[in-house]
Amino acid sequence: MSKKQSVSKQKGSGSNKPLGVRVKKYAGFYVMFLPILVFAIIFYYLPMFGVRYAFTNYNGIKAPKFVGLENFSKMFNMPGFWSAFWNTLQISVIRLILTTLVAVVVSLFLNEIINIHFKKVIQTIIYLPHFLSWVVTASLFSLILAPTGQGLVNTLLVNLGLVDANNMIYFLGSSKTWRGTFYVIQLWKETGWQTVIFMATLAGMNLELYEAASIDGAGRWGKMRYITFPALANTILTVIILNLAKVMNLFESVFVLQNDAVLDVSNVLETYIYYQSFNSGSIPNYGYTTAVGLFKSLVGMALVLICNQWSKKVREGRGIV
Amino acid sequence: MKKKKKIEVFSVINGLIFIIVALIILIPIWKILVDSFDLKTAYGMKLWPEKFGIEGYRMVLSNPTLSRPLLISVLTTVVGTVIALTLSTMGAYVLIQWEMPGRSFFANLLLFTMIFNGGMIPTYLVLRQFHLTNTLWVVILYPALNVYNLVLMRNFFEGIPASLYEAATLDGSTPMQTFIRIVLPMSKPALASIGLMYAVSYWNDYTHYKLYINNSDLYNFQMKLRGMIMGSDLPTAAGNATENTIKNAAIIIVIIPFMILYPFLQKYFVQGVNIGAVKE
To answer: Of the candidates A43, A115, A297, which has its C-beta nearest B142's C-beta?
Structure first.
């Protein structure tokens, strides 16, 4: 973006005129931008100024009183906070690597399907779960995975002799199985849609490369390994960088799949803030939860900036913001 | 000759693998559909209803508190999509006025929101202060300014030759007139794609209701479904329909409108991703 801007600035003939004249020329555009500005201020900038509550004991009722860094020292001494912090990082990063990896493999093989109609049908099917809401997805899997004779998966495992009928697996209700189940649901829902970007890259590839490789005697595997996969490398890196910047934002997917029994392995920062603020059973300590949120936002910001630099390095100067 | 045969074997195996993948995606959904029609609830591994009946649907649909969430879902989706699309197209159009004084300031103002945000609680407190919480305005307006989609739209606009709207400006039409008469008609593919993305996210919204709305009269269908699945808001099992049959029927009712439209809309969704990719 900055590149384009400087180019147009150089050729801009109007930039020699006085500012007043130029502003007047664009008056209509400023009016058009006004609603966007109002939305940005109310919904993004005013909340940013709200982070000042992190240094107070605000509880929504009494006027906030300045308490310095008390909320932060409380936070760093809370085991619940640290568990939520590490859970956020682990779940987000593992989920990102898993879906990207599986999506790449699926794309490579999808690309080998010769029959266009079959390919279209498969693509339509695998994109579908992306558009189901997390509430629907969670509802669906809570029924399929139910630890009773009504749950598809447990009945299947019992019939295969892998699980005892009196001791079915409570996939979403046990700390041992929750994470794995979460990743599987995540893969089911998002892998297909992730292939869209990889398939777009493959569609834009130079076919002559394949012909040249065929002449050189490369087989199917050789072509996949030495041509198709390297062509995807840049896109893979892009996808990882773009998503790494968002790893702190994990909320809805975890929230709808978790329950009290699995909080130790599933509580992430956003759900921690939610429970502490709205579900703690006592007067909420907005000061404290704002502090946790501020910490989350700062880590998130650091990640975005790091990813941005990284992106500029590997993507010929193009940042992510 | 030998080589040709080998490739065919690969294609067959590859095709089979993808059939299995497709089944893995479809079976959970199929299972819910089957069970929603099965009045005998020892569902187990059955992939066809044992005792067919529409009792489950009758129970869900006869629930008097159900039409309201459905109406709210439709209303917020339509109004929200229109507002969100208006904001992203107008904003994107202003941001391609490269010589406009303050343009880069406005762009950076929006982009900064992608880097830092106030967080859940300060946002909640601001929305409460503006008396938006516990009204439908919060779920319509708060998600309406999506900077990411605005940038996608701007990328699309950059592809329209500037000479087209410069000519209109010479004709003496105002920026708003140029925008409505020239820019929007040329942007139909982008409007369809980004509009659909907004519509899906409004239809699927759960988080904003959960965080900002406390009044069950204002719940959308996702909230209603969640209540039913969690058992707190289940129509009492009566007649032949058991609790689980009702739950399955409720899921199907939520997804059926989208499932019917999806095959026709799919290409627009994919197109939307590629609008972003043009810039890549």
So the answer is: A43
Maximum separation of any 2 CA atoms in chain B, in Å = 76
- Which residues 72-101 of A have a C-beta within 8 angstroms of B? none
Instruction: With CB atoms and an 8 Å threshold, state whether A152 touches B222.
Output: no
Portion of chain B with pLDDT greater than 70, in percent: 90
Range of the domain at B265: 2-63+235-279
- Co-location of B117 and B191 in the same domain: yes
Q: What is the pLDDT of residues A12-57, one digit of tens each?
A: 445 567 888 888 888 889 999 999 999 999 999 999 999 999 999 9
- Does the structure show a pLDDT above 90 at A5? no
Cβ <8 Å between A155 and B248: no
Within-domain flag for B228: no
Residues B57, B78, single domain; the answer is: no
Query: How does residue B236 score in pLDDT terms, banded at 50, 70 and 90?
Result: low
Query: Where in chain A are the domains?
Result: 69-314
pLDDT 10s digits, A147-188: 887 888 988 898 888 888 888 899 999 999 999 999 999 999
Q: A69-314: what fold?
A: MetI-like fold (1.10.3720)
B58, B91: one domain? no
Residue A241's pLDDT band, with cuts at 50, 70 and 90, is confident
CB contact under 8 A, B98 and A42: no
Q: Are residues B269 and B173 in the same domain?
A: no
pLDDT at A266 over 90: yes
Question: CB burial class (10 A; 0-12, 13-18, 19+) of residue A126?
Answer: buried
B213 and B243 share a domain? Answer: no
B224 part of a folded domain = no
What's the domain count of chain B?
2
Indicate whether B47 and B160 sit together in one domain: no
Distance CA B213, CA B97 (A): 39
| Average per-residue pLDDT for chain A | 88
Residue B15: which H helix or E strand, with range? helix B2-36
Contact assignment for A286 to B125 by CB distance below 8 Å: yes
Are residues B179 and B273 both part of a single domain? no
Contact B144 A39 (CB under 8 A): yes
Which residue from B116, B200, B226 is facing A135, i.e. has the nearest CB? B226
Spell out the SS3 assignment of B163-219. Answer: HHHHHHHHCCCCHHHHHHHHHHHHCHHHHHHHHHHHHHHHHCCCHHHHHHCCCHHHC
Tokens 């009712």: give the residue.
B253
Average of per-residue pLDDT values in chain B: 86
- Reported as a single tens digit per residue, the pLDDT across B134-184 is 999 999 999 999 999 999 899 888 887 777 777 777 777 788 888 888 888
Domain shared by B186 and B72, yes or no: yes
Tell me how many residue pairs between chain A and chain B have CB atoms under 8 A apart: 274
CB contact under 8 A, A22 and B99: yes
Chain A residues within 8 A of B144 when measuring between CB atoms: 39
User: What ipTM score was computed for the predicted complex, to two decimals?
Assistant: 0.90
Report the pLDDT value the prediction gives residue B240, as an integer from 0 to 100: 59
Q: Which of A126, A200, A270 comes nearest B273 by C-beta?
A: A200
Looking at residue B105, which CATH number applies to its domain?
1.10.3720.10
In whole angstroms, how far apart are CA A273 and each of A121, A270, A292, B120, B143? 42, 5, 7, 8, 20
The label of the residue with tokens 């900002």 reads: B212
Q: Measuring CA to CA, which residue among A200, A23, A24 is closest to residue A123?
A: A200
Locate tokens 């996210």: which residue? B201
Tokens of A55: 């240094």
pLDDT above 60 for B205: yes
